[in-house]
Amino acid sequence: MDRMVSTAYLKTGMYVSRLDRPWVETPFLLQGFLIKDDDDIYMLVTHCNYVYIDTALGVKAEFYLDTVSSFPSRERLAKNTQIETILNTGKKNVVYEDKATTLDELPAAESAFDEASSCVARIVEHDLRTGKLDIVNVKAAVSPILDSMIRNSDAFMWLSKMRHHDAGSYEHSVQNCALGIAYGRHIGLNRTALKTLATGLLLMDIGKIQLPKEILTKNEPHTLEETEIMRKHVAYTVELLRKTKGISDHVINIALTHHERYDGSGYPNGLVGIQTPAYGRMAAIIDYYDTMITNTPYSEAVSEHKALQNIYNLRNKSFQKELVEQFMQCMGVYPTGSLVELSSGEVGAILAQNTQQKLNPKVVLLLDINKQPYKKRKILDLMRQKKTQLHISKSLENNAYGVNLQQIGL
What we know:
Strand order of the largest sheet: 8-7-6-5-9
Number of helices: 14
Number of domains: 3
Helix content: 40-55%
Largest sheet: 5 strands, antiparallel
Shape: elongated
Radius of gyration: 23 Å
Order of helices and strands: EEEHEHHHHHHHHHHHHHEEEEE
């Protein structure tokens, strides 16, 4: 019996009876063959989105596309009136106030980070390997981050900057989740909406596990053919989320639309303007920002300040102007964890924002005026310091003056 299977779920031992295109358009010599190794799977993923397997002649699949409802259409994309109302009226649903100082919250933030990272590891290493996502692990990953960031968002953001993470690490998903909570908290979303946004951001790239490792870890830009393969992670993610009990349409839509662009230049559906739900428009900004400040196999991360400049230059092009402005306000002129140089010549890292004076955040001093490391860490609140002329003179690139944020601690 022939069954329709996404190439994301192919494995050795399956018998491929038909393709999603004519055999003559592919390099396969036989019209029907047994998958013998990973090379066969790679070739199928490269040339096809789905295939048909004969379950009588080979191994069966975990999931079949002929039993799965289609992906959401434009008309079925879940809207979020809460976000739209906030953008239109400027009135927040919730005004959050810090319940703890950044320093006091750091231990809890560290515990939340470790717990969330462990949960994501279980999701990737177990759930996704079996093709079944456990909503319990998802909730266990999101909840500690949400609790910590509601009390104080700077502590977790500082900590995430101090931890090493690259585009393929578990921490990358945790970072996206945290950025989403910080963004939604600033806008004034209620806890339920924050949790939805955070969950979507945590899971929106899980389909990448189905992509060939050699493409994911390639140390140079992808070819056009490889880019098309990379883009398949959206379909793989949506397919898995739709099969997971307890995942809302909003979360699925975040995965589906976070690569869409306001001017219609995104993928997979080329949505324009508010055709992309508000969660998706927010996720697009967060994903782009975190991609820029994260090391990839073929590019070095840019500073947070530079990343924000790039996003600002894309307002009402790739991203909605109003959401860009809110994101800029959320992150601050000098985002938490970024390196700066003071007018005195000292170098420090932003520990926390001062919401009343974004240009005068709290800074952890790292290097003295001679660019030598301080033996003892000193925290300077630029809003309250007595030297009224002291201010941030410029933002610095990552690792400026040899400063490695992953090694400084507090």
